[in-house]
Specification:
Layout: E1 2-7, H1 13-18, H2 21-45, H3 52-56, E2 58-62, E3 65-70, H4 75-80, H5 90-106
Antiparallel strand pairs: 1-3, 2-3
Amino acid sequence: MLNLKIDTKGLNPKFIEQLEAQKKAQLRQAIRPRAIFVWKQAKAFAPVWSGQLKRSIEMQAVDDTYLIGTRCPWGGYQEYGTRHNTPVAYLRRAVAAMLLQFRKIFGK
């Protein structure tokens, strides 16, 4: 399965430890819409031949982690390409779109 992991664990541990319980909850609430955005964008950017890849893109929530990916065997070939096919990068484009949106909001 080709997966993309979005979680709060990648943030600086000292920063996370200093947050109050309320702020941790706010952080979790802020990440969920971003994960949903990436999931929807990945579906929008996925190449459509039979539509199976697009339909197979799913999102799972486990604690503070969101996994976005596909179980299609050719999902990785589409994302990264092969020596015969150029990459489509539907997951990476979805993350880039989210980061662009995030930068517009926070000005960085």
